[in-house]
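Extended Data, record 6-phospho-beta-glucosidase
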Amino acid sequence: MTIKGFPEDFLWGGAVAAHQMEGAWNIGGKGISVADVMSAGAHGVPREITDGVIDGINYPNHEAIDFYHHYKEDIELFAQLGFKCFRTSIAWTRIFPKGDESEPNEEGLQFYDDMFDECIKQGIEPVITLSHFEMPYYLVEKYGGFRNRKCIDFFMNFAEVCFKRYKHKVKYWMTFNEINNQTNFTTDFAPFTNSGIKYEDGENREEIMYQAAHYELVASAKAVKLGHEINPEFKIGCMLAMCPIYPYSCKPEDMMMATSAMHKRLYFGDVHVHGEYPGYIKTYWQRKNFNIDVTKEDEEALKEGCVDYVGFSYYMSFATQYTEGNEHYDYDEETMLVRNPYIEASKWGWQIDPVGFRYSLNWLYDHYRLPLFVVENGYGEIDQVVDGTVDDTYRIDYMRDHIKEMQLAMSEDGVDVLGYTSWGPIDIVSAGTGEMKKRYGFIYVDKDDEGNGSLERSKKKSFDWFKRVIETNGKEL
Ligand code: P53
């Protein structure tokens, strides 16, 4: 398929997170992160969060794909793909193993220096997320995670050290990955991975979520301000999980329900971009009698640290429906989503919706008027190795359909997009389930859910396809 191309400097690449691929969980002075205490789950089987690391449990992130020892080989493969950029995170626990130290761990800092040098040598620009579901577990145990205001300062120490150390190697930064996942506060997964929150029985989960998210939004804004002081050339963005929520029908109450659901999922973006809470969140807190600690200084900090761009992930769309009696259109993500009859879903129930991607790009650009950066998109599937290779035509189809819609959003709708990094260009541990078998890569990694395998890397069919997409700057899909 031939389509109109992309701007010359469009940032094609791939994206991962440290905890999902580095492994070496206790090497080089690294401390235990929240990802290190999560067992493996499956679709419909939540990952268990254990009290510290317990012998005999399979923790898939401990070894992951051992990128820590394979990074040269892997970056060489990314260079073959033609990547212009590589998005990863800096594991907070490599730099501050417990999180509240005053001095960073030099060995951890050196690892990222070496890894970034390798990228730059191969002509690949590192794009960095500071906090991607991997905060120090010690901060959870000692301080209760981001329910504690002190975590703002701990995060700031971490951000400052990273900004100063890598100021000549990294230009594009993001603060908190998918900060809005925690909208789903009734499950244990999102509050723990986003904010290091473990709930006690009987606590008001939603109120605690809003409080933790507020401290993160303040920490993010302060980091944006500080980053610009350290290097005015920095571009620092937020990172939202964009799952647009459609009304199930054109019934007016369904439309209001969808509007309310979008408010709950995306107010985070408004705070990051506009530096203040939208009215609907303040009135919601009042109606619910939530007492959120927001100080005058916080409000000033939010105003002074607006982001430069909006990074976001896009995998799927949602739909919701009004139910009798829900007069305030209150939204619970666990129980109020409905299946969209017009689209298919993956084996993990993720609804495949390329047009929804174009809609998302429009929605975000209409609301925020900032450059957008698509920092995650891709298709998780069970791959079969036949004669030493994987025919992942389904993955090529998914990505082609999505990239085409992105191109239309740019050429027909005038949306400003900086780049596109595919999720998991090399197979990694799934964040949601901890499985290896939910694969996204162009590069296959020989490892199964039980942890067996040689860790050998090999190219799938999609490898040459994506390489060609980048080579032709998106003209040939
Ligand atoms: P996995 C939920 C909804 C949308 C994106 O996810 C999500 C999640 C959490 O699972 O996570 C992002 O591995 C996240 C990545 C993650 C990727 O999407 O569950 O930023 O860390 O791996 C894909 O298939």
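Summary. The pocket of P53 is lined by residues 17, 20, 133, 177-178, 181, 241, 313, 315, 376, 380, 423, 430-433, 438 (CB under 6 Å).
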